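Consider the following input, taken from an annotated entry for Guanidinium exporter (Kaustia mangrovi).
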Amino acid sequence: MAWVALFLAGLFEIGWAVGLKYTDGFTRPMPSVLTAIAMAASFFLLAVALRSLPLGTAYAIWTGIGTVGTVLLGIVIFGEETTVLRLACIGLIVTGLAGLKLITP
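Applying the prediction step yields:
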């Protein structure tokens, strides 16, 4: 259950990171409220996961999911640059996340 909570926390992290772009500096009410809700959900689910997962592993995976997801959505939604080197770096992050998952009970 902790891994599911951690994965969902990472998805909500992607949501609030992308949501920040839509808040226009927190001047747009609806995107701001939705971003704040995603932040709260992300932190809550991370706290739930930390009940049984090691802090270093959980935090690294939480931020890694957020990083990879945000970069990919930046490419897809906002037309950010896509290069082989950038995608290779994302692949290294994913490899590290998979490694942490495999070595953590």
